Amino acid sequence: MYGWGYSGYGPLGQTGYFTSPIKVSNINTAVGVALGGTDNTQFTYILKKDGTVSSLGYNYYGQLGNGTTSGSATVELQGVQNVKDIVQVSGSQNGYFGAFVKKDGTVWTVGYNQYGQLGNGTADNKSVPIQAGTQGSNVLIVHEVTLASSIDDDTPMGKTGTYGGNNTVVSNITLRGDNGENKYDAFNISSTSVARKFNLNLGVDEEKRLTSSDRLTFKSMNPEIATVDSAGNVRPAHKGNYGSTVILVEYNYNDLGVVNKFKGMIRVKVAPYMGVASPMVEAGGGYTIALKYDGTVWAWGYNKDGELGQGNTTSVYSPVQVKSSDGSSYLTDIIEIAAGAYHNLALAKDGTVWSWGYNNKGELGNGTAANSSLPVKVKIGDGSVDLTGVVSIAAGYYNSFAVRKDGTVWSWGYNNYGSLGLGDGANRTTAQQVLGGASGSQYLTDIVEVKAATMHTLALKANGTVYAWGYNYYGQLGGNGTTNSNRPVQAVTGAQKSASGYFEKVVDIDVSSGNDNGYGTSIALTESKEVYGWGYSGYGPLGQTGYFTSPIKVSNINTAVGAALGGTDNTQFTYILKEDGTISSLGYNYYGQLGNGKTDSTNTTAQVVQNSENLINGILQVTGSQNGYHGAFVKKDGTVWTVGYNGNGQLGNGSQDNKSRPIQVGGGGSNAMHISYGKIMHGTTVIEEFDNPNNIISNITIAEDDTFVIDKSKITAKQSFSLLPDTDTLSANDVKITSFNTKIATVDNNTGVVTPVKGMYGTTIILVKSGAVQSLIRIKIKPSETDEPKSVASPMVSAGSAHTIALRYDGTVWAWGYNKNGELGQGNTTSVYSPVQVKSSDGSSYLTDIIEIAAGAYHNLALAKDGTVWSWGYNYHGQLGNGTTANSSLPVKVIGVSDVVSIAAGYYNSFAVRKDGTVWSWGYNNYGSLGLGDGTSRTTAQQVLGGASGSQYLTDIVEVKAATMHTLALKANGTVYA
């Protein structure tokens, strides 16, 4: 695990700040990581293969979950206590608590709990987790995959059959895992569904489809989640691990004896059988949000701005279900969530994004700057159209990001220093497309993931390279300098020492920063399962103290499968999830957010996250707080575990006691491969077919008894400049497909069939490679749909500043915690301490068919199954994307974007990835965090510019993550733009 940026209290394993990745710890079994914290008090959670969590950093409120509280730095790995079988961890956005999801679906929190963010019905801080509620350039683009299911023909990603198309970058897919009866979802990546692409072009994008004779190679970064075989068949690992992983896809193209390597990736999430989403948690500043397997979202903690989505601003200390936009029902069919400091994003199954909470910077993306305590739909452009086609979301401090199916990145909200990537510093209240900047295109393209902090943003390209934009005083952009950029710049190799000179082979990214001081930190997980970091590391979140302008190795851990940053101001912390399900942590630990039982300041050595008894294990996902001091983890059993600051109840244990050991919530490159053709299958029945050459298959949710088939015969590779034909259809034989997490899903390289692992409801990446090109598809697994309510999404949770939202398998969204801005989606601003179901836009029913959620600081996003995005909460900067700057305590549709496959919520802005691989952003745009080439906030979704990506607009994006003023976008080829 690696980290970079500020590490004052040791969240990166060292104190200081680092402008390039450093190794966070010596853990070599990490499978997930998350950061939390606020100001200068960051902390880190590291989820390990055995389901335990380690932590580092600030621990004053016990957020490290080690049973102690300390204001000193914690650079030694702490064991988060009282939790095991964790499948996901999350640190607070602008807070001091963490949240974890266990295998059984329970949510565990730890740390500060003043606003009930721990979700246990009290305001007591906890230092031990409690249960919420009761206790390069070359890129390989996967344009489509073939979904199949033995459950039914309606997967979280839609009907079985082909998913994606020529304009789709398959970057994020949800699969439903095995229920014990050999019923699950799966998908296949075929060479003909992949394109090799060279994105650096002075005029137009150039790509070429692979042929059936082209050979791809595949690899799952975590076979415990999802598996992939040599034929590109991805399926859940059938081990009951409902989390996410990355499937790496690679293609080696021999051009007259010169071999060009193209890389791509797919993030696969595995949901339980009959589920909608892969369980996950997200930590906001003082609240936590959680996504359940049924697609519902739950939240707890701080709710002053409506972060809990309850339609009020009353903080609660136990999980409450996030309501729908109308406040009378609950948010449903959510497949991903993201938490900013005070707002949240929720990605719905239909590709739309919902947001709620704080919206002063427009981070809700609904075209207003008014807070919303209920979900509102994220808008695009002028605010008249919903953001759709999103496949991944990211929430920054005050802004939000989304990666669309086409691989582009969209941003909204706070844009100081150009953190929105729009070419200026103006905030946006709707999603705008992030510019390409240094990517080589007008807009950033081929992105699979984006992560955003306060004033800087990262984007991961499908080829594993990273782009960044926004504030860069501490080197958080990773470009080996300190010059700000309102357009994407490519991260350099740093300590990785790649031959290309650029940071590469990245499969996951994260960022952290808090308030407006600009202490930005960035980390990245590489194919070698190591973590690098750059930026500020005052308390050691990057394994060293100082600041680093290029990647440094965060720790000696070489078994990392996940990483997350948390913190605020200069107090960042890092979580490194290892293969064994345990977590290591570094950085700020004043509130115990490192989960090692201590509360010290600086930790430059990886700490072991553990509960009161032993190492927390079985962790599948980790997350750190946006502008806070807590972390949250999801365990294999579905429980959520939190650690750190709990003054707002963000740990979800019903109290406000900080936890230094995790507690259970509620109680106890330019060349690209394009995959546009594929289908979701249920047995022999095609549920959904992807055949649009203008789209890239990037984010898919399927049932555990379905399969996802990638048409290898239609995979293409594209070069932006070549003396030979600039596009090629790769040979299916040369296309290699692998699953990044075979515990979630496997893939048959010969047939391109991705098959979920029974009972593993999470996310994994399907990586398609052919020679020098590659692409990736993020797969989410949900339960089968044989019973009511119907399975819609892979369960997940996301934490806002002081509230938590959760997505249930049935596509409903739940929230709890802080709700002043309507973050809970209840049609009011009353905070609640137990989960409440997010209502629909009319307040009389509940938000449904949501396949992904994301939480910003005070607003939330929800991606609907139809590709539209809903948002609610704070909206001062237009982060709700509905064309206004008025808060909404009920979901509103995001204007200006459709066909969304992924969403991201920053602190004050929002992002969406469309099926065509483009990214759209809206809301707060300080420092250009929306990626629109300026710093103006947007109230509707706008297409993120290409910046350094080599095209006019960012393309081929599979995932976006947003902080306050910076955003990350992951391209299908595995490269990152920011």
Cα Rg: 21 Å
Percent of residues in helices: under 10%
CATH class of the domain at 796-977: Mainly Beta
* Strand portion: over 45%
Report the span from N to C terminus: 20 Å
Mean pLDDT: 86
Low-confidence stretches: 199-205, 719-726
Question: What do we call the CATH topology of the domain at 796-977?
Answer: Methylamine Dehydrogenase, Chain H
Kindly state the number of beta strands.
90
The major sheet is characterized as:
8 strands, mixed
CATH architecture of the domain at 796-977: 7 Propeller
Question: Structural class per helix/strand content?
Answer: mainly beta
Total helical elements? 0
The rough form would be described as globular
Commentary on this structure:
The chain is built from no helices and 90 strands. It is mainly β and 978 residues long. Among the domains are: 2-131, no CATH class; 140-271, Immunoglobulin-like (Sandwich), CATH 2.60.40; 673-782, Immunoglobulin-like (Sandwich); 796-977, Methylamine Dehydrogenase, Chain H, CATH 2.130.10.30.
Features:
single chain; 978 residues; mainly beta; Immunoglobulin-like; 8-stranded mixed sheet; 0% helix
Q: In summary, what is this structure?
A:
This protein is mainly β and 978 residues long. 0% of the residues lie in helices and 52% in strands.
